[in-house]
UniProtKB/TrEMBL annotation:
InterPro entries the UniProt entry points to: AAA+_ATPase, P-loop_NTPase, Spore_III_AA_AAA+_ATPase
Species of the source: Lupinus luteus (European yellow lupine)
Protein name stated in the entry: AAA+ ATPase domain-containing protein
SUPFAM superfamilies: P-loop containing nucleoside triphosphate hydrolases
Key word ATP-binding present: yes
MF-aspect GO terms: ATP binding
Keyword Secreted appears in the UniProt entry: no
Domain AAA+ ATPase stretches: 182-318
Upper classification of the organism: Eukaryota, Viridiplantae, Streptophyta, Embryophyta, Tracheophyta
Alphabetically ordered keywords of this record: ATP-binding, Nucleotide-binding
Length: 398
């Protein structure tokens, strides 16, 4: 059954079990999640009703965090490793001449982890441990999902490091599982750190291993499949194409389609006009696209002249007098000029609160100054996914 709202909004309903229309969790008393760490280790934990009322319950597990902490000074290494909330660690900041900071999930700002400043020797030690940085000033640790990003001085020396923890957390796929079954292209937007790349990684695994699709990941910064030539186990059977430098991402996207016959292309951080055009070219060949783009909400993509092609592009149209009167609008208006590359756009407001747009309908409504209808997907206090249909879109609700 297809649901149609009074505003002619059509959203595809969830498919039959194992996922119900109100929750996409399998029917079990205690939903199971998994954290994939390195290659062979998988730690399972349960988000049961006895857990904290927060939907992002604290996890206790042994991951590959030590490999990231190994590049830090020994005092910071031991300090962070012994923290009770280490599983919530997001990144470690090392800036020359400043106190080192740790940033944790769900906390604003950074936490000072030492009362002495970072020295040149400590940055040099970390640089030697990491190895060579790419042209985008990013590096990884082989066999892990961690990312280290450098800040350089005008002379090219490293004066700051952002050491970001990479974790392959499965359990988010239920937020979008029903949409994946329809074989439609999906674009994710959201602020940095909300979990877009984590979702890309899990979608790659599920489409490859459960849906048996030919999946190719275009992994520009090795964030999805991890550093090194052997991809991380978290992407399952999906194949991964590395990109020599960020400016070549669009070429590798087209190469993936021409050479490897994928049914699905997954690409993170679509940000240039060439990449947007490559996405359209790929979609026109019948290949499913799953991607992320720079922006927090649909409105950001619509106003971005480079990325607006992802949602169909926007052009100025001059109406005749009769047409303008019939529409009760000005003679010069904005309209969508082509079908969107992505059928659905999902705004990730946070890890457990998503808004799902049917792209063409929402774009057209917003251009006419009207409020589109969206699906709200969120977790309740027990960790179950609840889908609220035909909700009025609130683009300011952050």
């Amino acid at each position: 059954m297809v649901m149609t709202s009074s505003l002619n909004m059509v959203l595809l309903p969830p498919l039959p079990p194992p996922y119900s229309t109100t929750t996409l969790f399998p029917s079990s008393k205690s939903p199971q999640f998994h954290i994939h760490t390195h290659y062979a280790k998988t730690i399972t934990f349960s988000n049961s009703s006895s857990s904290s009322s927060s939907s992002s319950s604290s996890l206790v597990h042994n991951d590959d965090l030590q490999q990231l902490l190994h590049i830090l000074p020994s005092d910071l290494h031991h300090n962070l490793l012994n923290q009770t909330n280490r599983t919530q660690l997001v990144e470690v900041i090392l800036d020359l001449g400043r106190f080192p900071e740790a940033r944790y999930l769900g906390q604003h700002g950074g936490k000072c982890i030492r009362n002495t400043e970072v020295t040149v020797k400590e940055l040099e030690y970390a640089e030697d441990a990491v190895g060579e940085f790419g042209r985008d000033n990013r590096a990884g640790i082989e066999g892990t999902l961690h990312r280290i990003s450098a800040i350089r001085s005008r002379k090219g020396g490293i004066v700051g490091l952002t050491c970001r923890v990479g974790r392959a957390v499965s359990g988010q796929i239920d937020m979008v599982y029903d949409l994946l079954q329809y074989g439609k292209s999906i674009l994710f937007v959201g602020r940095p750190g909300v979990g877009k790349t984590t979702v890309m990684r899990e979608i790659a695994r599920v489409l490859s291993d459960e849906f048996h699709k030919r999946v190719v990941i275009v992994d520009t910064s090795n964030e999805i499949g991890g550093d090194g030539n052997i991809p991380h186990a978290a992407i399952g059977g999906a194949r991964r194409m590395q990109v020599p430098e960020p400016s070549m991402q669009h070429r590798v996207m087209v190469e993936a389609v021409e050479n490897h016959m994928p049914e699905v292309i997954i690409v993170d951080e679509i940000g240039t006009e060439a990449e947007a055009h490559a996405c359209r070219s790929i979609a026109e060949r019948g290949v499913i696209l799953i991607g992320t783009a720079h922006g927090e909400q649909l409105d950001n993509i619509m106003k971005n002249p480079i990325l607006s092609d992802l949602i169909g592009g926007i052009e100025t149209v001059t109406l005749g007098d009769a047409e303008a009167r019939a529409r009760n609008c000005q003679k010069t208006i904005l309209e969508r000029k082509a079908p969107p590359t992505f059928d659905f756009l999902i705004e990730m407001r946070d890890m457990h609160y998503w808004l799902t747009h049917q792209t063409d309908k929402s774009v057209d409504m917003l251009l006419r100054g009207k409020i589109p209808q969206v699906e709200v997907r969120k977790r309740d206090v027990k960790g179950k996914v609840v889908i609220e249909k035909s909700k009025a879109y609130d683009k300011c609700q952050f």
